Amino acid sequence: MTACSQNGYSDLEVFVNDAGKDLHGQIDPMPEIKPYKPFIYQAFDLPTPFLPRKSEQVQHTINGVQPDLNRHKEVLESYPLESLLLVGSLQGEGLIFALIKSPDGTLHRVKKGNYLGQNFGKIEHISEAEVRLVEIVQGGMNEWTERTSVLMLKN
């Protein structure tokens, strides 16, 4: 208690009294408050980017080309076209068949009109050395285009 009773703080009292003597500050004015302008969302007619592109909204087409999305898929449509191998052909019953090997090693017999690959590829022509098909690929939001692809015989 005796330490606190001494008057040894005169230098501290002088510092506190002189610390703010030369300060003449000014407070900045409050910023102007602008009135709130509500945003009106008008994009209800645009397709949502969170749905798959092959939805009901894509049923409308510009150039008349579109795949049949209601058709049951064939077995070889679950594989990318690049992973399928043409290993041979057969002739019989007035038709020519192609032998296609899938990535799992299964051999499939296909004919003109069957589907291959994941781009709605329909077989248009089969010869001894190749299978030619027409694929339908999506170019834009409502635009489908056709392209020709070929599977060549692997030696």
Element string (H = helix, E = strand): HEEEEEEE
Q: Report how far apart the termini are.
A: 105 Å
The number of helical runs is 1
Strand content: 25-35%
Using the 3D structure, state the CATH architecture of one domain. Answer: Roll
Shape: elongated
Please compute the radius of gyration using only Cα atoms: 39 Å
CATH class annotation of one domain: Mainly Beta
Strand order of the largest sheet: 4-5-6-7
Q: Can you give the helix content as a percent range?
A: under 10%
DSSP summary, beta strand count: 7
Report the CATH topology name of one domain.
SH3 type barrels
What characterizes the major β-sheet?
A: 4 strands, antiparallel
Structural overview:
By secondary structure, the chain is mainly beta. It has a domain at 56-152: SH3 type barrels (Roll), CATH 2.30.30. It has one helix spanning 10-19; strands at 85-92, 95-101, 107-110, 115-116, 121-126, 130-140, 143-152. The protein starts with 9 loop residues before the first helix and ends with a strand.
Q: What is the gist of this entry?
A:
It is built from one helix and seven strands. The chain has 155 residues and is mainly beta.
List the helices and strands and how they pair.
Elements: H1 10-19, E1 85-92, E2 95-101, E3 107-110, E4 115-116, E5 121-126, E6 130-140, E7 143-152
Antiparallel strand pairs: 1-2, 2-3, 4-5, 5-6, 6-7
Features:
SH3 type barrels; 155 residues; mainly beta; elongated
